[in-house]
Amino acid sequence: MQAFSKQFHWCRAAIAEPYRVFFPLGVFWAFWGISHWLFYAVHWIPQYSMQLHSHIQIHAYMGCFITGFLLTAMPRFASARSASPVEFLIFFILVNAAPVLYMCQAWIAGRICFASWLLMLAFFAGRRFFAKKKDSNIQPPVEFVWIPAGLLAGLAGTLLLIGSDLNWFPPPVNKIAKLLLEQGFLLSIVVGVGSFLGPRLMGTYRPLFTGMDVQAQKRRRRQSLAVQLAAIAGIAVSFVTEGLGLIRAGYFLRTAVIGFIYFRAHALAVKPLMKEPFVRMLWLSFWMVFLGHAIIIFFPLYRAALLHIAFIGGYGLMVFAVGLMVIFSHGGQTQRLKAHAVFLSVISALIGTALILRIAAVYYSELFFVLLGTAAASWLLGAGLWLYLVSNALFSGVSSEELERCHEEAKQRVESLRSGKPLKS
């Protein structure tokens, strides 16, 4: 009976805090999307699919982490109710249906599921933020305007790809669609959420509204929003430019926008002020996102391989760092955020090794699949160690009292984020 009670409370906690399900689910899909390089290298499977790999990594692996983070964070930032069981179930079905359909070669059906997931995220966010507007002074962070921009990029790319599959559009449209879907969607989320959350976690945040009256704060907020919208437009133009064949120009513009937003927000700091091990991992991820785009300006012919600097070294490290913070802080184990320096160093080293081997594979064509398989093994080991590290906080049973205490701690951390004070474990 006691075991059943713990399971019940864990399920209740998982619906209230969806990261408990979607974060490990994301690791599962990452294992599936990456392991086929290892399996092909050791001749366990007869063929591989780059398209399947990219779709699972973006739509399932990253999609699950985005779902878990936003469904947990947005209700708290909006002081609104958490996901309902029905909403939770819809997200769970959509985020899993898309990769399953891709594996069955049902590309159009899978993309329709992914587009539905994007629309559901927009609907979920709208219900939380806009429903509170009439009776509350709470406003979403200005940087969160990148979230609908990312959803729009993903939706536009998906719909254009469906049209391309049906031969409705010429080849340049197909290229732009792939860029919006495979890069624009994730990059927008990373730039927006990263430029807000990162400096506050690293202790490098500098508030824009200090010492202003209400009207001055509103003016400054409008100015900041205009800057963010101009940056979003710049990112969109960069993808169109690249899709039309002007690769260097596209990456120059994109790198300039990323650098501007990150430097403006103090995300690209010389070093973080906070000393927690996960903060150093997060700090490194921001530089990898920036440098991973900048280097392609000089070596555009190798952009497919060099983009993995941003994908593996940037997005991958960022997901693990933020995921660790969310899991330990919401799980009532904030003291562990200061620990595990060696563990996180090993994880970072394994992911770094995977990145180096992935890039090296391009230069050693005779060892291409051997290096890809070894890179996959290194990444899988690092991800497995990360999952082991967080498993206790992620899967342990939660009592009603403990759940309420964790919620109160989470509320305090959200207030700290809103005010711009560094988060202290």
Report what the structure shows.
The chain is mainly alpha-helical and 425 residues long. It has a domain of 120 residues. The protein is built from 14 helices and no strands. α7 packs antiparallel against α8, α7 runs parallel beside α9 and α7 packs antiparallel against α10. It is globular, with a radius of gyration of 21 Å. The two termini are 35 Å apart. The model has no long low-confidence stretch (mean pLDDT 88).
Summarize the structure.
This protein is mainly alpha-helical and 425 residues long. 78% of the residues lie in helices and 0% in strands. The chain has a domain at 20-139.
Whole-number mean pLDDT: 88
Number of helices: 14
| Intertermini distance | 35 Å
Instruction: Name the structural class.
Output: mainly alpha
Biggest beta sheet attributes = none
Give the radius of gyration: 21 Å
Shape: globular
How is this fold's topology laid out?
Elements: H1 2-16, H2 19-41, H3 50-77, H4 85-103, H5 107-129, H6 146-165, H7 171-202, H8 214-243, H9 247-265, H10 277-298, H11 303-330, H12 341-363, H13 368-395, H14 400-419
Helix pairs in contact: 2-3, 2-13, 3-4, 3-5, 4-5, 5-6, 6-7, 7-8, 7-9, 7-10, 8-9, 9-10, 10-11, 11-12, 11-13, 12-13
